Amino acid sequence: xxxxxxxxxxxxxxxxxxxxxxxxxxxxxxxxxxxxxxxxxxxxxxxxxxxxxxxxxxxxxxxxxxxxxxxxxxxxxxxxxxxxxxxxxxxxxxxxxxxxxxxxxxxxxxxxxxxxxxxxxxxxxxxxxxxxxxxxxxxxxxxxxxxxxxxxxxxxxxxxxxxxxxxxxxxxxxxxxxxxxxxxxxxxxxxxxxxxxxxxxxxxxxxxxxxxxxxxxxxxxxxxxxxxxxxxxxxxxxxxxxxxxxxxxxxxxxxxxxxxxxxxxxxxxxxxxxxxxxxxxxxxxxxxxxxxxxxxxxxxxxxxxxxxxxxxxxxxxxxxxxxxxxxxxxxxxxxxxxxxxxxxxxxxxxxxxxxxxxxxxxxxxxxxxxxxxxxxxxxxxxxxxxxxxxxxxxxxxxxxxxxxxxxxxxxxxxxxxxxxxxxxxxxxxxxxxxxxxxxxxxxxxxxxxxxxxxxxxxxxxxxxxxxxxxxxxxxxxxxxxxxxxxxxxxxxxxxxxxxxxxxxxxxxxxxxxxxxxxxxxxxxxxxxxxx
Length: 531
Ligand SMILES: C[S@@+](CC[C@H](N)C(=O)[O-])C[C@H]1O[C@@H](n2cnc3c(N)ncnc32)[C@H](O)[C@@H]1O
What we know:
Strand content: 15-25%
Low-confidence stretches: 1-5
Number of domains: 2
Number of helices: 20
CATH architecture of the largest domain: 3-Layer(aba) Sandwich
Bound molecules: S-adenosylmethionine
Helix content: 25-40%
CATH topology of the largest domain: Rossmann fold
Mean pLDDT: 91
Strand order of the largest sheet: 3-2-1-4-5-7-6-8-9
Structural class: alpha/beta
Shape: globular
């Protein structure tokens, strides 16, 4: 029996749905659809289980995986879960002629725990953790699976863990999920469970230039799991474009044999504590010698979090309007866009004030009458009841973070961006602060010269997190745990040479004619001395 009349082996159905559904609605339910060729590839993994009869599709959407599976075997018995009434109605219509498919309008995480399946296939919802009631779900997972996770764990990994728990003997699972958890702290416990379950077989990481999913700010990976005791290792593969799919198909066809031993790691050698990027990406740091931990030089700490930037930040005119005296205003860089160059000078700060930018932070300790009035406005607007302010005493106190000599930007497209804070002002969370220890502080310029180079960026890159679309993020600890070249290794003459180029570069930036050739020269010196 054929399922539906529309062309099922394409994404026409999803495109039609997206055309008539608002992006807000799609975002609310995390409705980013799997491209059909990917769904088909994942379906092939399930089809490889010769005993395949029962299928679970936990985040059904418009059933792209069911369509791909039914193309191979129309007798499969499929159960789907979907939480959104709207898309559920459309999916019901689509599959109404197929008695083998039942779709349930229910939350997958709270239902169906006692059933097991021969095949589970899914593109789970991806939310930022606080968009979802994680606490109750974590409890459910702990009771059912006996796996304790932390509150930052993302819902998509919880779907994955539940599905692995629901695999029949010889059952197979194919999941497409953001690769973020492979390289993040909350992923450690998830990775531990995956290793313990002994079901993980392949991790296929997408290095596509474009996003796999339209609009979704995330990078993708496919996890192939099998509950069959036929392998004791995981293979990591990278795919750069659709042509690489042929290779993944061969990998799937040859299971349980591996085409090559490349990038395979025995379960017992997989370390859940480290970023798994080590297993699938050549580490830049390996190209250099004389590396030391970044922590030898200093410490990265996130910038000041106010909990309500609009309220706490002041431009000169806003300060005037509320009569806030200078002594209550802490000079502070509030937006990344206000500091686009590698050097932020006193003159730059002056210019921002002249242009009436928000460059002050309210420091309301021992408030005078005007500040008290402004605080009363804050209470009226319930600024004092926000997540961060409510946990402070008094609610308007600000974190004690002295200005740091170097800032580093948090989100980037082209690796890390460092800024020398010559104005000696504070910063909000748009930058992290870099504090140097007493040994490296006298060498701030030399260190900063190093931070400007591609060599330093490449090495830091080993520790980045990715958010798709080429956007990268570094948490303070990603940098703290990074390696860097040991600057102690430089002789005095080389140091002097670097500092000369550094001064020339600085001057060119201040003159608004940045001359990158000076940084390239510094870069060349590091390559010469450390490779
Ligand atoms: C990322 S989409 C994937 C849809 C489809 N499987 C695909 O790959 O094209 C996730 C789907 O899961 C649904 N969903 C979100 N939370 C859910 C939950 N807790 N239980 C079941 N379905 C959920 C969303 O409404 C959405 O349709």
